[in-house]
Amino acid sequence: MNLKKLFAAFACVVLSAGIFAADKLAVAEPVGKGGVAASDIEAFWSILESSIQSDEYTLISRSALKQMMTEIGLTTSSDLVNLNSTQKARLGGVEGVKFILVSEISKFGTRLNCTMRILDATTGEIDQARTANLRVKDLDELADQIEAALEKLLSDDKSLHRSAILAPVIKVRAPGYLADDFNVRLENAMLENGLRLQNLQSVAKILKKNDMDDLSELEPKMYVKVGKLLEVELLIQATITRFEIEKISYNVAETGASGFRYIGNLEGSVRIISAQTGETLGSVPFDERVDFRSIPISTRRDWVADDYGKYLIRTIIPQKVVPGIMKSPAFKDKNPPKAAEEKKPAEDKAAAAFPEKPAGDTKELESVRE
Q: pTM of the entire structure?
């Protein structure tokens, strides 16, 4: 076995050990109050169990939890919230589960209130920092929100530090796809760099629900309010000051050939904002220009201006914009080690497809920029 294969085998062993070392989690039967139907309690219990999607936890069966509770003399899951010292000690001595998700669902008028908490089975203590409260109109809305709530609830302290991408501020005439395409590409590229982000759709839904759709001109205190609503540490917002696809005609005197070529321009900056203070922690400018002659003619034969525009976005953001963001001091501690090494082959390939200097007449390009 050569050295490379030996390292690969060792990596597989380490990864496998990490998988099998996942903490065991039990989901206790939800406690219903205020006239919540038993069928709704059962439905909510099933939703909770099916929504556990963390590699850090292994879900144990209901029967295993019931047996564990019987061993320490508990009959209902509501008893888990108010354990005495003796019960806590006995619970800590039972092997098989490390954490228990306890929840309560009740009716308040026409709405449902749901509280979820994490009980450390090794100590019998409720972790007050890992509590989620949801207030919804019905069980369907609760099901829609439960996955995001559980993601936060089951995250450790380090992984709680998430960021949110806000809608970009566009200060030029631009096609309708620009805002959505820009943010989707930005989200994908940042996730690939190992950053934890609040889902774009969740961000839009939460802000719309709180009548905060327009984020173009906010005071620092409003960014703090946005941060609290989204429960994130940092806010990321782009400002786009130039987006255009230029159609340039050309004539070659020697051959008599003529036609058109396209050049794309994308300019602006990305601000990184503290969700605690509303202050700007960093601003990353970008001013990129692409000559689309680097794309094979066979690929762009039937392209229209929008096709060039979308290519411009999906090329520049991962290759130019996000690397600049990752170098910002605000993300210094959030850049996973070896990320640059792992992505180097991909970057080399991208560089070949997207050269720093476009082929062709440089002087002509300079005159177009002016």
A: 0.54
